[in-house]
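Handout, page 2. Input:
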Amino acid sequence: MDVQQRDHQAGLLAIAANAAIVVGEGDARYRADPLATDLPWCGAVLRLNGAVEETGLAAGVQGHPAIGIAWLAEKLAPWGEQLQAGQTVLAGSFTRPVAARAGDLFEADISAATVVMMYLSPTVNARLEAKLRKDLRPGTRIVSHQFPIGTWPAEKTVRAEDGTLLYLWTVPPASK
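Output:
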């Protein structure tokens, strides 16, 4: 999380991506079968400036993360809204909120991500370049909102309909 982004106008997806640094959208090759995964035991470790600040399990979200999704579906129904197949829904936080100051950096294990969305400053992007190159698997896609990642040349840049510049990368196979 780059707390230097004070004036950034962000929607829900941007806030979720910024708060967690990483949003891993499913790639069918790497999706886990939820029925074969003990979801309440899925965990999170929140590191702030290199020190473990908080840990948690999915069981902390109403005992099982699927209960939060069912609750949301029930709350939407009276309004004529429903969850759609394939939608990404955040079930809730595994950890308590942790205060951050300008310059703080939260760390995350991103090795299993298949897509990384970055809404960070140029300075923080540059600080993360080595981690992205080292930790991500070949084929992982990276999208950076507005800024490049250090000295790593983007494969492609595109301008969104709202004028926002997006930088795109696919992690290459490891060099031998």
